Amino acid sequence: MKIFIDHREMRSRVADELVELGAEIEITTLEIGDYVVSDRVAFERKTVDDIFSTLLERRELFSQLTDLARSYRKPILIIEGEDMFFFSGRRINLKAIQGFLNTIALMRIPTLYTLNEVETAQVISMIALKEQSNKTRPFSLHGKRSHLSQIEMKEYIISSFPGIGQVASRNLLNHFGSVENVLTASQEELMKVERVGFNTAKKIREIAGGRYESE
Fold first, then answer.
1. 137 or 204: which leads in pLDDT
2. Sheet containing 24-28, strands listed edge to edge, beginning at the edge strand earlier in sequence
């Protein structure tokens, strides 16, 4: 069982759980999807936090799902987290949630719900095993993202740093105003931004300010 994983997904424990389940994983930069398990099946994984933040600006997720459906015959969206069912501590209009999910359904993309990273890995591995049981089926990566706006490209650049998700990326850009200002900010300044802790700020400084030495 081999699974291609986008490098940004290494912020989660899903990859480690897949290895525990016997998967051979390959970390790469996927233009389309977060996990690819066959020539026709790819997954986009979103946490509940991702979904709630996306309600404020839906275009990016819908663009990702459109690209996924265009590139793979069987695209799958995974929504991970308990709060999707209980909405605990959330100030959100339930009709907005329903309308959001209805739009995804109209895109004909199956949506699976998992409680945590362990369950997500189990779902991905089960489908990967089923898909790869036919060894004659070709297995390759394909598809390219649609053209990104300047705003989306800036968010993409910042979200590629370890520990930075979609929400933290936007928080950083809103706080500092530009990609350049984020990359030149001190560790102390970075830590003033919501969802950016000590370890994340330290990693940004190490990558942005550290000397490049090729092996």
1. 204
2. 24-28, 2-6, 35-36, 41-47, 74-80, 111-114
On whether both 117 and 28 belong to a single domain, the answer is yes
Question: Which is higher by pLDDT, 107 or 197?
Answer: 197
Q: Under a CB-based contact definition with an 8 Å cutoff, are residues 51 and 84 in contact?
A: yes
Q: 49 phi and psi, to 5 degrees?
A: -60, -40
CB 164 within 8 A of CB 158: yes
- Buried (b) or exposed (e) across 125-154, using 16+ Cβ within 10 A? bebbeebbeeeeeeeebebeeeeeeeebeb
Here the tokens at position 207 are 């990558």
**Burial class, 47, CB count within 10 angstroms (exposed 0-12 / middle 13-18 / buried 19+):** buried
Tokens representing residue 55 in the block = 């309600």
The count of C-alpha atoms lying within 13 angstroms of the C-alpha of 23, restricted to the half-sphere facing its C-beta, is: 28
Domain, as residue range, for 187? 150-209
At residue 1, the 3 state secondary structure works out as coil
On the question of pLDDT at 13 being above 50, the answer is: yes
Task: Take residue 169 and report the two structure tokens written for it.
Answer: 């990326």
Tokens found for residue 172: 């950083």
Kindly report the number of other CB atoms within 10 A of residue 10's CB atom.
14
pTM of the model: 0.65
Among 101, 132, 163, identify where a domain stops: 132
Dist CA 64 CA 145 (whole Å): 8
> Does residue 86 surpass a pLDDT of 70?
no
